[in-house]
Structures are given as structure tokens and as C-alpha cells.
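tool=predict chain=A
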Amino acid sequence: MENKIASRAPAISVSVVSHGQVHLVENLLHDIARHCPALSLELILTLNLDETWPISEHSFPFPINVIRNAIPQGFAANHNQAFGRANGLFFCVINPDIRFDENPFPALLDCLQDSSVGVAAPLVLNEHGLMEDSARRFPTPLKILCKAFGGCKGSDYAVQDEIIYPDWVGGMFMLFPCERFKYVGGFDERFFLYYEDVDICARLRLQSYEVVLCPDARVVHQAHRSSHHDFNYFKWHLVSMMRFFCSAVFLKVFFLGIKKKFLG
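tool=predict ok
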């Protein structure tokens, strides 16, 4: 893995971006320290807004590299920036509002032993223990319209005990082998917020890599659904959706899906 391999390199570089959410980040770091004590990792924390980070870098059993942005950046740019400082063999993107009740990494790393897998994600539960719809088929304009008018309800995949190979997984928690993240060029920074996860999974699929959801790995998502009640988030969501549907990536995966459906 080129210069990523080193005798003292951490196994996993974890990238977390805070938007004035240091209290959530602190909870997440305590969860990692509590449930993953034997895991070799480093944390790259990006403070996307001007906020105080009150915690000493020696408060946790893993190194913390803090990046302070002079100008706020989008999801893709922030995590790509963190990847540029990552030393691990694996690169993990985690939202600040994720919590652990157990260590999700062993099961995810097992899934990534398969060289055909480009990204692995855990089963995501909400605060009430119910499964979130974090593994989906690629969106289409028709499907978006169907959902907007109250149709197309339910999950795209039936989650049981077996590994699932969805079209894409949610960006709240994604674990990549570093060389595969680098191979596809990381996240597309033309997306400021939303659809970065759809896009990178599509590009991985177009390079013949699998996207997997590992039900043995579980995390809790304390989601706030900002796009439901904030116009700026709604606007970013809409712009990102249109950008994806107008992209060559969408057209390629759309016609690839049609080809597989009719030709097997």
C-alpha cells in the first residue's frame, strides 16, 4: 500500500468532522476507547467551524490529530483532507452522532478480507434499537418521485444474519481499505453535502468492487435529520441529488443495472 505501510502504522485511521458538535465527538471517542481498547487506531478530527476543543490529546489511548478549518468545507473535502494525513491501512469515516455499544471493527475487517470488497459498513440502528435504512439500491428520479408522493416505502434489502451486497451504504459510517479509497480518487468534492456516499459506492461498483453491509457489526445513529427542517440543508440535498442524476457515474451504473437485470 505504498507509503501507508509502516511498522508502527495504526491499523485504522478514523476521520470525524465536527460542525460545532464537540460534545457528540467526545461521547464517540469515549465509546471507541471503552469498546475498542485493543484496536490500533488514530483519530483525525476536523473542526469545520470555529469551536473550542477542550480535551487533551492525552485523554484517550489513541493519538488525536486536530485540523482546524479557516473556511468551512463540505463532507467530501473534509474527509479527503483527513485522508491526506492518514497513516492507517484502513480509512474509516464516522459521523459525530454515531455511538457504540460494542466493537464493530472486527466484523468489518473480516468483511474486508475479501479483495473484491471496496467498502464495508455496519448495521445502523436508531436510538430505539430499530434498523435504519442505511443500505439501499441506487436512487433514480422515478424512485425519488415515488417516495416524495408517499410510495416506495420499506427497505430495499431484507437484513438478516448474512452479509448484504447493496448498491450503496450511508456515509455515517464507512470503512475503506486505504488503497481502494485512493484508487477511486476518494470522495467527489463537487458534492458539498449529501450523495457523496452514493457517488463513491457507484464508482467502486464501476471498478468491480463490492459494497457490503456486515450485520455482525452494529452502531447507533443519533440522527437529527437536518434537511427536514433547515432550508440550507434541504437545498444542499436537492443540489447534490441533481448533480448525481446529471453525472456520467449515474448513467453508467443505471445502464449497468439494466444490463444485469436482463442479461443476468
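Residues 248-263 form the longest helix (16 residues). DSSP finds eight helices and ten strands in the chain.
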